[in-house]
Amino acid sequence: MNIVLTTLAAALAVGVPALATAWAQSRIGPAISASMAEKPELSTTAILLVAIPETMVILGFVVAVVILVRAG
Amino acid sequence: MIIAMAKLRILGPRERLEEVLRVLQDLSLIHLSSPEAAPLARVQLTTAQERERRHLASALDDVERALSALSVSEGSASALTSVTRADLAKWVWLASRLRRETERLAARTTALEEERALIMKYQQFFSAFRALLESETLWPNATAYHVLLRGGDTATIPQLRATLSTAIGEEFQLFSQPLPSGETAVLIVVSAQAAGRVERLLAEARVQEIPVPEAYGGKSLTAAIPRMLERLGEIPREREQIRARLRAQGREHGATLRTARAALNDRLRALDALPLTGVTTRAFVLEGWVPTSSRHRLDSGLGAVFGDDVVVSEVSREEWESEQAPVVLSNPRLLRPFETLVGLMPLPRYGSIDPTPFVAVFFPAFFGLMVGDVGYGVVLAALGLLLHARSRSGTTLRNVSEIIGPCALFSIIAGILFGELFGDLGRRWFGMRPLLFDRADALLPFLLLAVAIGVVHVLLGLILGVVSARRHPRQAMGRGISAVMVVLVIVGLLAAVDVLPRAFFTPAVTALLVAFPVLIVLEGLVAPIELLATLGNILSYARIMALGVASVMMAVVANKMVGAMGSVVVGVVFALLFHLVNFAIVMFSPTIHALRLHYVEFFGKFFSPGGVRYQPFGHWTRVPDRSRPASRNSRQAA
Q1: Which of B24, B231, B291, B574 has its CB 3.0 to 4.6 Å from that of B561, i.e. a possible disulfide?
Q2: Is-contact B119 B231, C-beta < 8 A?
Q3: A20-53 per-position pLDDT tens digit
Q4: Residue of chain A whose alpha carbon sits nearest to that of B344
Q5: What proportions of chain A, in percent to the nearest 5, are helix, strand and coil?
Q6: Count of alpha carbons within 13 Å of B539, Cβ hemisphere only?
Q7: CA distance B465 to B605
Q8: Is the pTM of this model over 0.90?
Q9: For B599, which DSSP code?
Q10: Searching chain A, which residue's CA lies closest to the CA of residue B447?
């Protein structure tokens, strides 16, 4: 039972932020693409804006790793 | 680094102003700015100069359009020693004539394309109803309407049939045929008496009717088709003639147009420099910045032509603000390609820190840690060499190829440390062993390594922040205390988990409690929030570990495909494809995240954007290199 709960916790830790990241990027992507069509010099901002939500899934992944490592 | 600038003031007799500007343009050293000393009047362009400026701008537009239409924008210009008014007039006339001709040829090309598309449409229509249309002569009292319906519009046909029945009874025949393009061809044959009503109906229903153009001989499609097919053979020949004409014009006038572009730009720059001059009734004053190392070249250049007539003096440092001075970055040859990455951000302010040397060290290191594979590193190095061979010096592509070099080197070094060659292939085939740890298993050590790198990088940023705020002691002290508090938090945490001796814990916490109010006094209430954000920034470096693990896992999965597919050949093909996909991801994702770690986590601690680019007043070049002092240009403008 413990293994199931631990695995589920790790999956949720990475899965939920992954969905959140995907949703955020799906909103940012079209918006920044439209802005770049008007102002190509916004490319750096585009990189930053698209990469920022990925922090969520990366930290989620780290939490999942910690959960799995601590559970042995 | 940002090279030191000197602000200069040039004084001379007013009647020699244009001559001085010409020499300054040849020297291409000074970044002009409006003189601030009162009571100086600014030079206003005369009506004749304003008119000249308008004509030159219009001629330049013609030249650019002609160069673009003739596809001869790149290439050398004719050697230019002096430009006379007759030359300018000749170029203006030539540019105007060529622009008109290229526009006419472009319009003709478009018309030919449209004609070809129209004929193709009729050809499809004719093929669909060939038998019917060939019997057109058998129904002389009927009128034919040719209609094209878009793909998926077939539901319209029954509606059209019903509407026609209601309007004109049984005096029509409607045939439809799907076309290979997905559209549906519809032929409506109606009696001549009902033709007017049908035309109104089609117009009201906004159905796209394709009448046979008059150019092909009237109303009968059968009669028009042979002429159309004839034209289909003529059109490519006509288009080739137009291309040949454009090529010939490009060969004949390309060099002259490029020379004209340079000369017109030069003259426009000279006119634009005039309003930046301050004048009294007898004298003129020009002000601007010159790199300190180039000051003597400006002095000797002006001295050689004007002797004591023109005086150059340096404005003391106290009289100007750092924000006003233009910025030019200067880094050693090895680090220079990384200016491209820094250049994606706004230019740093004069007097602040140029982050290029730090980016040159940390960017390849982060990239290497995330890729961490000897095999991918070697492929990347080969890609970098290929790009280097295919690119020209000074271009962005060449800079990218030179950034790829250190990235590949760090990837190979990290690959040796982690014992990876195309994932676990090195271990299985060559007995490679990790020198540091195995990234696929040692997740926690890799995470600690990533966060430790984050601590070093963020602390370096905070220290650079203290250095860049050296002229503002309060701000510098606040940033310094933030850095110390970050160190104290880390020491306290390490002592709490017994990595450091427990004895460190109490002093670290006590020091934190003392530093906290001092930080609030110096930086305000927002400082504790910024401190927390800094700790969050450090945790953000965990992405190095996350992407590194993802990369190695993908490579391991690719290798496992060889044994999982039944057939070895199929397995190898799938494994190669998977490695290719992984390589593409490995190129893209670590680049984005390494950049983000620099732009957000690192630059946020010290970077001061808002610098003005150094643009020396000089002769026009095709790709102006505005980031460094221009070399002497020997061309003389009129």
Answers
A1: B574
A2: yes
A3: 999 999 999 899 888 888 888 787 778 778 878 8
A4: A44
A5: 90, 0, 10
A6: 15
A7: 6
A8: no
A9: I
A10: A62
